[in-house]
Amino acid sequence: MLSIGLALEGLKPIFDIVYLITQQPSLYNISDIIVLYFLLIGILMVIGTTFGYPIFRIQANTEGIQIERVLDKRKCFAGEYIHVRIIIHNRGPSAIDHLEIYDAYPETMDLVLGENYLYTRISARGKAEFSYILRTPVRGLYKIGPTKVIIHDRLGFYEEEKIKHNFDEILIYPSYEDIKKLKVLGAKRQLGRMFGIHKTKLKGTGMEFWGIRDYYPEDAFRYIDWKAYSRTLKLKIREFETEKNVRVMILLDTSQSMGQGLIRNTKLEFSIRAVVLLAHMAQERKDLLGLATYTNRIKTYVKSGQGASHFNKILEDLAYAMPQGPSSLSKAVEDLIMRTRNRGLLFIISDLEGKRKDILDGVRKASAAGFDVVIISPFGPFFEIQNKLLGPTEKALGEAIAEEYFEIRNRLSKDIQRYRAGIISVGPDDFLVSVINEYIEAKRRGVGLV
Amino acid sequence: MSKRAIDPTRVEEQRVKRMQLLLNLNRLFAILIFLSGFGLVISLIDSSVWNFKLFWWGLKFIIFLFELIFLLAGYGIALMFGYSDPDAVALMMSIHNAIFGGNGTILGLNIEDLIINPMQIPAQENIVNSIYAFSIITSIVFAFIAGMGFIRECNPGLSAISFFALNIVLGLASLNGKLLIDTNFNSGNIIQMIFSKLVITAFLLYLFLELSFQANYIYSVISPNIHRHRRISSNIKRIKEFKLTTVTPQKLKEPTSSIQHSDVLVKGKEETPSRPAIVAAFSKIRGLVGRKLFRINTGEDWDKLNNRLKTYYMHLEKNDPFIAVSLSASAYTPSITRLILIITTGTIFRLAALAIFSWLALNPLPVLRVLHMPASIVDSIEAQQPEMILLILIPLALLFLLVGLLVHYIQKRLAIRLARYQEGLIIRPVSTTSVKTEKQLQLKKKPSKSRSS
Fold first, then answer.
1. Rounded to an integer, what distance in angstroms lies between the CA atom of residue A182 and that of residue A432?
2. Residue A28 pLDDT more than 70?
3. Which of A26, A427, B94, B304 is 20 to 30 A off residue A77, Cα-Cα?
4. Which candidate, B14, B49, B20, places its Cα nearest to that of B131?
5. What is the pTM of this model?
6. How far is CA B117 from CA A108, B63, B70, B81, B105, in A?
7. What is the 3-state secondary structure (H, E, C) of A312-345?
8. B16/B330 Cα distance (integer angstroms)
9. CA–CA distance, B419 with B417 (Å, rounded to integer)
């Protein structure tokens, strides 16, 4: 009984408040009714906006939101698609009335299907999910993320924003598109259309069958086709394709200046496309191909080799290549000479926008070391002037600069040729073709034979 | 039931239909809210305000003011440029006649006299009433247009404009003595307060604002998902129906015919063109082949991209039949019943709380008495003034904000602690009970050891 009494005693102030609330006399002498009206509206608005804040704060527990990102693959070729699935878990104790989620993806990628955001309500311990498909046009190492979480209250007065730094890396290999085209062309075997681009057969002492011809006295007995003799009663000789394997090393410039040009078609992108194509052709022909990327030193190095895994290694190195840092051909060549024992054909793919002395020094060292040097040089203005966004004046200016630039290039070419090295200035249109032609030509001439 | 037994597109369609229904209901709800608020305001104003003739006079007077300002400004500028007084007046008269027309008078007042003595009011009946009528009708039209905009896209900004315009209407009507609200109001009694016409009007108009925000909430949660579903479904349909058109052999022949000399393709080390034009020309010729074979991405081959996307999508769909639902995110739009429930309960709770807190703010004395404030404050004359409202209103508003910030702080601290605990930076202390049990175990083991020894 005592405890009940004490409890009631404790409740007395509450009763007092209720009494006071309900039995108060008139307080103000407000004569003008509209003043009171606006006073009331003001009070309602002030309380209406602030009253929801604690409730919003209880709800807006961004720490309780967990984002899970599921990618269907983490490595793919440029031009392929990636499916990104976002699963949002609300681990918090209360529901979130208005949740916005934005998942960031790299600018170079294209959102082709779905959306990278979601507006929803998510219950306590509940989950939500959305997905989207990205196209990956440009090779490189990319990060998908972060995810932005925005929580609003129902009336839209407050919002809480949080960026969840959850990233997923995607490695985009250079495009396989050119190789596919090459394969299609090889299958069609359209001679004359792109002379030299497909596998050329030369008669010789290889393993692949070439044809049968009549026997001549000087022919070796081991090549006599006895089955053909039994059929025709004439001695016949089996002929085979020749196998000339060359050793090719590519020295790819990945300095800052190689990143110039249209966003998705920079000098470096074209260079990489050319390297991929060359690597594929070399792999097909069992040639030994190596790759070194450089800026002011060798950044990555894959020694000459062949096979699928070797090709994949080259692709991976190319995928990671980023245009950054200064260029020093001389140091790169020095480094390359130290790393390689066997010399062969050396393709230097560089825009030659470094110091003139350094370039000449590099070429001289490479030639002196025994490399057959071919410089494929993306000519900067060809990559930049074609920009459709440029106006006629800008284009005219660009062409004037190009002309001056060409004079410099011309002088450099002459100096380079003194070191028995060739230089080809290429634009976006003839880049790949020039590289392939040089390779075919080198094979034909037997440069860098293994 | 297995996943494959359910038709995902059908489930999705049904869900979207329900969402669309809710959106329509929401729109209807918004219309009802707006019309009730609008009707209430109109019913509170004396019908004599809705006089078109007065409105017209009011409009004319506004134009008159505009013309007067124009004349005076022009007159001043003319004087500044060195015109004499009569010349400046004549100039302004001629300009006025050229722009506005007329015969040298505005609302019966001579322009020449008006420029010299601008403090003249047109001789016209009920000029004050006309201005009020014009302002009230303009505001109500403005409120109506904003309200219609709100109904169309549930934009809370428009509903706020409508709300303020309606309040302006009430204020203007009150100043003009045309407001029909009972002045017998006792703010001391909460029951009387709630049922007084003034409070009902204020509450209903506020309710209009509040519910319009709620309607906007439903709209912003549901509408993007419906649009998204439509957009993505149509995209998926187009992808599925896409067929790659084959290239005709004639088209293939074109590039081969243009390339005759294979020697231009093969360029050795000796190539040293002397002029840029030659390089450009060579580049162009060589490019003819290269461009055709290794097409440069100046324009994407959309057919090919679509075809690839189709293949990729079909592959995804084969592995996950619910991929369309995931892409359109339609599976995770909020449940309709739950939305209605939370909005209803939430609104009732908010309004009840608002009524109580508003009453507390309007009546600070009971709170001051509970807080045992000295009699000098409670019984002072200032306590009888409306400014005293601030004594409760400001701390109350700050209290809400403070509580909110406190909750935020606690949540943040907990999150940091949890993160550190997960990282292993905080090691859970070994409880005394577990230590005891280990000791007990050792004690128990000891005798057995001694026995064995």
1. 11
2. no
3. A427
4. B49
5. 0.70
6. 70, 18, 15, 21, 14
7. HHHHHHHHHCCCCCCCCHHHHHHHHHHHCCCCCE
8. 7
9. 5
Distance in Å, alpha carbon of A111 to nearest chain B alpha carbon: 12
Cβ of B213 within 8 Å of Cβ of A133? The answer is: no
Q: Cα A106 vs. chain centroid, distance in angstroms?
A: 10
Residue B54 has pLDDT above 90, yes or no: no
The token duo for B269 is 């080390």
Q: What is the 3-state secondary structure (H, E, C) of chain B?
A: CCHHHCCHHHHHHHHHHHHHHHHHHHHHHHHHHHHHHHHHHHHCECHHHCCHHHHHHHHHHHHHHHHHHHHHHHHHHHHHCCCCHHHHHHHHHHHHHHHHCCCCEECCEEHHHHHHCCCCCCCCCCHHHHHHHHHHHHHHHHHHHHHHHHHHHCCHHHHHHHHHHHHHHHHHHHHCCCECCCCCCCCCCHHHHHHCHHHHHHHHHHHHHHHHHHHHHHHHHHHHHHHHHHHHHHHHHHHHHCCCCCCCHHHHHHHHHHCCCHHHCCCCCCCCCCCHHHHHHHHHHHHHHHHHHCCCCCCCCHHHHHHHHHHHHHHHHHHCCCHHHHHHCHHHCCCHHHHHHHHHHHHHHHHHHHHHHHHHHHCHHHHHHHCCCCHHHHCCCHHHCHHHHHHHHHHHHHHHHHHHHHHHHHHHHHHHHHHHHHHCCCCCCCCHHHHHHHHHHHHHHHHHHHHHC
Of the partner residues A33, A54, A129, the one whose CB lies closest to the CB of residue B407:
A54
**Helix extents (H) in A154-242:** 177-188, 226-232
Highest average pLDDT, of A69-73, A188-192, A388-392, A402-406, comes from: A69-73
- What is the distance between the alpha carbons of residues B218 and A115, in angstroms, rounded to a whole number? 20
Smallest Cα–Cα separation from B344: which of B199, B154, B215, B167? B215
Closest residue to A20, CB basis, from B174, B267, B369 = B369
CA nearest to A264, candidates B292, B296, B309, B288: B296
Q: CA dist A421 to A205, A288, A370, B148, B203, Å?
A: 31, 21, 11, 77, 89
Please list every residue in chain A whose beta carbon sits closer than 8 Å to the beta carbon of residue B397.
Answer: 46-47, 50
- Tens-digit pLDDT profile for residues B214-242: 888 888 888 888 888 888 888 888 888 88
Sole residue written with tokens 């976002």: A86
Closest CB to A50 among B206, B268, B400: B400
Q: Which of these CATH numbers, 3.40.50.300, 3.30.499.10, 3.40.50.410, 3.20.20.70, describes A177-183+188-196+245-445?
A: 3.40.50.410
Q: Which two tokens stand for residue A213?
A: 């011809």
CB contact under 8 A, B332 and A113: no
Q: Which fold has domain A62-173?
A: Immunoglobulin-like (2.60.40)
Show Cβ contacts of residue B389 under 8 Å, excluding neighbours closer than 6 positions. Answer: A39, A43, B361, B362, B364
Instruction: Tell me what pLDDT residue A163 has.
Output: 92
Residue B94 scores a pLDDT above 90 = no
Mean pLDDT over A176-205 rounds to 56
Query: Model confidence over A179-188: pLDDT tens digits?
Result: 777 776 655 5
Average pLDDT, chain B: 74
At B34, the amino acid letter reads F
As a whole number of Å, the CA-based R_g of chain B is: 40
How far, in Å, CA of B139 to CA of B165, rounded?
A: 5
Write down the ipTM of this complex: 0.72
Q: Name every chain A residue with its beta carbon within 8 A of the beta carbon of B297.
A: 137, 264-265
Tokens 């020449």 locate to: B112
Q: Is the peptide bond before A174 cis (omega within 30 degrees of 0)?
A: no
Q: In this prediction, what percent of chain B has a pLDDT beyond 90?
A: 6
Q: How far is the C-alpha of A405 from the C-alpha of B193, rounded, in Å? A: 86
Is residue B292 within 8 Å of residue A434, measured between CB atoms?
Answer: no
